[in-house]
Structures are given as structure tokens and as C-alpha cells.
Design a protein that fits this description.
By secondary structure, this protein is of the alpha+beta class. It has a single domain, classed as Alpha-Beta Plaits (2-Layer Sandwich), CATH 3.30.70. The chain is built from 4 helices and 8 strands; from the N terminus they run ββββαβαββαβα. Helix 1 packs across helix 3. The longest helix is centred in the last third of the chain and has 20 residues.
């Protein structure tokens, strides 16, 4: 929300009013980001396929820094939020279009539903999903 007062523009937030202050937890924003990202066709999953990234996210959650959604890190201020998102894309999807659609949907949801301004939205494509991986039969047992 923007107030125009005496010739200059001042950013205000609907989260702070004369009646009190609303604080939105990192986990709430992270959950919203996860849901909004998964609404976009071409997203296979949210997160990372790398063990090191998964362990890093686990230690951040244990230390109380970052969000509880795997693959989503948010930093929430009083009026703004910065978002880092790891996605696994379906193979064959045009990545620039996919990330533009994801970014647009997340920013819309966070700003419209939570009243926060998305200051920064970084997306890392950390993996590709190949549909034939699901259809492949497990290898036969070599011993019984």
C-alpha cells in the first residue's frame, strides 16, 4: 500500500495499524511459497536432489534460521520478504518460462494474501525429473 503525502510517496503496510501489529512467521511464508510454486505446470517438486543441500536445510531448521519447507528459504521483515527457492523441473519444460511463471505466481500470492512486498525472489533449478524414471522397472535381483 502506498500513501502520497505532501508530494512524496511513503510505503506503508497493512500489517501495522493503529490497533496493533501483525507478524507473519517464516514458516507461513515458506508454506505459501511452496503451495504457489507447485501450482505451476512443469514443477516436479520443491527442494534439492543433492544431499549436501538437504543437510544444510536441516541444520538451518534446527538452528531456528530459515523456514521448515525443504527447498524454500525466506527472510521476513516487517513489510518485505526475500525468497530463495530450489525447484526440480520436469524434463522438456522451457526453464526461463517456467521460472518466470513460478516467480509471478509466488509474488502475486505473497503480496496479495500476506500483505508483504517481495523484495527479492531467487530461483535455483536444482534438478530435472525424467518421466521414464518412474516407469523403469527395478533391476532384477542378482541373488535369492
Amino acid at each position: 500500500m502506498t500513501d502520497v503525502t505532501k508530494g512524496h510517496t511513503q510505503e506503508t503496510s497493512t500489517l501495522t495499524t493503529d490497533q496493533g501489529k501483525t507478524t507473519i512467521a517464516d514458516d507461513v511464508v515458506a508454506k505459501m511459497v511452496t503451495i504457489a510454486a507447485k501450482e505451476i505446470e512443469g514443477i516436479y517438486d520443491i527442494g534439492s536432489q543433492k544431499l549436501g543441500d538437504q543437510l544444510s536445510g536441516f541444520t538451518q531448521r534446527l538452528s531456528g534460521h530459515g523456514s521448515s519447507e525443504q527447498g524454500v528459504q525466506v527472510e521476513v521483515g516487517e513489510r518485505e520478504v526475500a525468497i530463495d527457492l530450489n525447484i526440480i523441473a520436469q524434463y522438456g519444460v522451457h526453464i526461463p518460462d517456467l521460472t518466470a511463471n513460478v516467480r509471478r505466481n509466488i509474488i502475486d500470492r505473497v503480496e496479495r494474501l500476506l500483505g508483504l512486498v517481495v523484495k527479492e525472489m531467487n530461483i535455483k533449478v536444482s534438478g530435472l525429473h525424467f518421466p521414464e524414471q518412474e516407469k523403469a522397472a527395478p533391476p532384477p535381483k542378482r541373488v535369492e
